[in-house]
Design a protein that fits this description.
The chain has 83 residues and is mainly alpha-helical. It has three helices and no strands. α1 packs antiparallel against α2 and α1 crosses α3.
Length: 83
Amino acid sequence: MNLKETLLTMAASLVTGLVLALFAVIQSPYNALTSLIGVGVVIMYFRKFDRTRSRVTFVIFSILYYLLSVFMIAVYQYVPAQT
């Protein structure tokens, strides 16, 4: 992978992870929109990169970004604000 592929993989997996985290957190009518955005990003990425290594890297980093995003959202929601 060259630098351009690496940066595009990281950006696409970050967007996908964040959108999946938002899908898990927000209410019903709006989570359908986030799922469509996530599917669109995945389809665009998979069309651009057809190597198995790039796709596996994308999926792994998307899962990692999802877990990190859900953790950060949970911390933000449940830790009381300091006054």
